[in-house]
Amino acid sequence: MVKASIENGILQDFIGQATPLMDEARLHFEEGELWMSGVDPADVGMVDTSLSADAFESYGSDGTVIGVNINRLEDVLDMGGRKSTTSLATEDGHTLKITADGVEYTLACTDTASIRSEPEMPDLELPNEFEVEWNHIEQGITAGKMVSDHITIEGDTEGAVLIRAAGDTDDVVKRLVDELQQLNIGEDASSIYSLDFMECFSRGVPDSDTQVAFYHGQNFPLRMEFGYADGHGDCVFIVAPRIES
Questions:
Q1: Pairwise CA distance, residues 175 & 204, whole Å
Q2: Quick one: pLDDT at residue 90?
Q3: What is the arrangement of strands in the sheet containing 189-194, beginning at the earlier edge strand?
C-alpha cells in the first residue's frame, strides 16, 4: 500500500535522474523514504537517488516495491506544473494511480522480477575530491562536445581541476581554480569519460547552480553527489572511465 502526495517538480527531478540511463526501475516506497537505483545496459553509468518522507506533503507506505516504466511515468508527470501537487497511490502493486493537475492516470506496473537487479554501488576510496557548481562542469561538457565524444578530467596537486577534450585538429580546456568550493587533491590523476554519459547526468542535475561533489582518481570511476529537494533528496551518479590501451 502506498498513499503519498508531493510537489510535482520534486518528483520530476527524482524520476528525471534515472530516465537517461534506463527504461524501467523498481520504486522502493520504504517507511521513511522513496528510492531507486539502476545502471544502463552497457554498465557504464549508475544512479542511486532517494527522497526522504520529509520531501512529501504526505507519505504513507508499508514498504511496497513496484516496477514502473519510468519514461512513461515521466511523461505523465510532465502534464502537471512544477508547483502543482501530485498524488501517488497503489493498493495491490499492480497499478499506480497518479493524479496531477486534475488528471488521473492509472499506470500499469511492471513485474519487478523482470527488471534488472539494482547494482551494488562500488565503495571506492578515491584520492581526489572537489566541489563546484554544476554550470562550470556543464560548460566544459558543452565545449568538449565541439571537438570530441570524450573528456578528460584531471586533478592537479597544485590546486586546479582541468576538463580537456582533444579532437583530430582542435582541443579545448576548461580550467577550474577559483570556482572550486572545496578541493582536496591527494595525487595528480587523469581519467577519460564519455561525454554522452556526462550529458545524461547533466539532465539529472536540477539546477545549473547545484553544488556537486566529485570524487576522482587515475583511471577510476567518477563519483558525483548532490542534494536536491531542499536537502530532502540525495543523488549519486557514477560513470566508468575509458581505459586507454
A1: 23
A2: 92
A3: 171-176, 160-166, 150-156, 189-194
